[in-house]
TrEMBL record:
It is found in: Membrane. It comes from Bartonella tribocorum. It comes from the Bacteria. Its main location: membrane. This is Conjugal transfer protein. One of its GO terms (cellular component) is membrane.
């Protein structure tokens, strides 16, 4: 029996169009950039700055609550250790991301 390849032709056409568009925008990135997004950029940078201050404070408060729960024997030691490690990692995630993704230039 002869296998029909009509479906293969139909599927390849959209893929090739997407590939051509991707290659064009990869070669000419200025056409892919949106214009006049300064207010949004400013708002997101302000949000990022505020989160960098809030996240460590929230993590410290959570650690304090965990310590009170452990001292009052509401939670066991292994649960306290697991949650404390998770809160410390989550609290320092913003700083870790800054260290990893920021350039050496300062």
């Amino acid at each position: 029996m002869k296998q029909l390849n009509i479906l293969q032709t139909v599927v390849n056409k959209p893929i090739s169009i997407v590939t051509i568009a991707f290659a064009f925008f990869l070669a000419h990135p200025i056409y892919a950039q949106a214009q006049n997004l300064d207010p949004a950029k400013k708002a997101l940078e302000t949000f990022k700055t505020q989160l960098m201050g809030i996240i460590p404070i929230a993590a410290a408060i959570m650690l304090l609550c965990l310590a009170i729960g452990y001292a009052g024997r509401y939670i066991e030691k292994d649960t306290f250790v697991r949650w404390a490690i998770g809160v410390v990692i989550a609290g320092s995630a913003a700083e870790i991301a800054t260290l990893l993704f920021k350039g050496n230039g300062g």
